[in-house]
UniProtKB/TrEMBL annotation:
Protein name, as recorded: Polyprenyl synthetase family protein
UniProt xrefs under PROSITE patterns: POLYPRENYL_SYNTHASE_1
Top-level division of the source organism's lineage: Bacteria
Keyword vocabulary terms for this entry: Magnesium, Metal-binding, Transferase
InterPro entries: Isoprenoid_synthase_dom_sf, Polyprenyl_synt, Polyprenyl_synt_CS
Similarity remark: Belongs to the FPP/GGPP synthase family.
UniProt xrefs under Pfam families: polyprenyl_synt
Gene3D superfamilies, sorted: Farnesyl Diphosphate Synthase
């Protein structure tokens, strides 16, 4: 029996107030288009990309893997509806943003040395660094190709916004890497980096969807601000999970961000605080920088689990964890305030609000 086509109106989804249902529906709309775009790649890049998206396992067999949260595609589809168009109108933007996001994941995993993503080997670990670079580059190229195919003024405006957001994303990754080798990074610097690395693409998803839906620049910019603040809230939660998240839930190692010497928000906030815990943490991180050789493993560098646990405890004692959780809520409130600048149907606004709420209470 053939499967029914998904309803293209997000607002019409049964039980759409539940964000997991919204995300599932966004996947149902975007995945067929995403698969058709990936089919354009030559072997073995098509196979490598299919593995990365969770469509096949390491042996090439069909899989029902976790292809990601689908937050960015959902934002693009909702933004198209906020502009008065159908969700389907925002599909090229939803898929293009998802392609750029996964381009960044493929490269980030390689640069960070992450061996696991979504509870599976990362692409560079399974297929090698060259394939991770090539497939990431290919996804980036496909994103622009997809947006410009229709040749409309709206698609050209959307492509310009996507290119600007991608440059900011790359800026953020460069800042993130540079900060790993600094003893101190200010909270303001960290927020700027995270606004680039995470916020820019979530902001872009909103504005691209709105532009494709026919919105003017004023409305698109307001939705972009919603996405930026949502991205900063998202990253603040991610920073907490990057230190204190449960590996069985996050799919990453315990103390993941501490292992990578990341100057995430909890670390920066803790270092900026006064008191014994902050001073002791600063001394530890300064000593770590001198004893760490990036070419060696944690064990070879003399780090063990107790040491990472000790650093996490000092960050918490200095207030870094609490400050970051509070910042997530501040960014959440700013995101909701941005929605007040856009005239849209009440049911669409409710879904934007529900998604913002979802971001600050997630566990993975």
């Amino acid at each position: 029996m053939p499967r029914p086509e998904p309803d293209t109106d997000i607002a019409a989804t049964p039980g759409a107030a539940a964000v997991p249902a919204l995300l599932d529906h966004a996947r149902a709309l975007t995945n067929p288009v995403l698969r058709s775009v990936i089919d354009r790649l030559v072997p073995p890049m098509d196979t490598v990309a299919a593995y990365h998206f969770g469509w096949i396992d390491a042996h090439g067999n069909p899989a029902e893997g976790d292809g990601g949260k689908a937050v960015r595609p959902l934002l693009a589809l909702l933004a198209a509806e906020a502009a008065g168009a159908s969700a389907e109108t925002g599909l090229p933007g939803a898929v293009a943003v998802e392609l750029v996001h996964n381009f960044s994941l493929l490269h980030d995993d390689l640069m960070d040395g992450d061996e696991k993503r979504r509870h599976r080997d990362t692409v560079w670990k399974l297929y090698g660094p060259a394939q991770a670079v090539l497939v990431g580059d290919a996804l980036f190229a496909l994103a622009g190709e997809l947006l410009l195919e229709r040749g409309t003024p709206e698609s050209a405006r959307a492509a310009r916004r996507l290119n600007a957001a991608t440059r900011r994303l790359i800026d953020g990754q460069a800042q993130d890497i540079a900060y790993e080798h600094r003893e101190r990074v200010s909270v303001a610097e960290c927020l700027q980096m995270e606004g680039n690395k995470t916020g820019a693409l979530l902001a872009c998803a909103c504005s691209v969807g709105a532009v494709l839906g026919g919105a003017g620049d004023e409305a698109a910019d307001a939705l972009e601000r919603y996405g930026l603040h949502l991205g900063l809230a998202f990253q603040a939660v991610d920073d907490v999970l990057g230190i204190w998240g449960e590996p069985a839930v996050t799919g990453k190692q315990a103390w993941s961000d501490l292992r990578q010497r990341k100057k995430s928000l909890p670390v920066c906030a803790a270092l900026a605080a006064d008191g014994r815990a902050s001073a002791e943490l600063a001394q530890m991180l300064a000593a770590d920088a001198k004893r760490t050789d990036d070419r060696k493993s944690d064990a070879e560098n003399g780090f063990d689990e107790e040491e990472f646990a000790a650093r996490a405890a000092l960050i918490e004692e200095a207030g870094g964890r609490r400050w970051t959780q509070e910042e997530a809520h501040r960014q959440h409130e700013s995101a909701l305030a941005s929605l007040d600048e856009v005239k849209m149907p009440d049911e669409i606004r409710e879904r934007f609000v529900a998604l913002a709420d979802f971001v600050v209470v997630r566990r993975h």
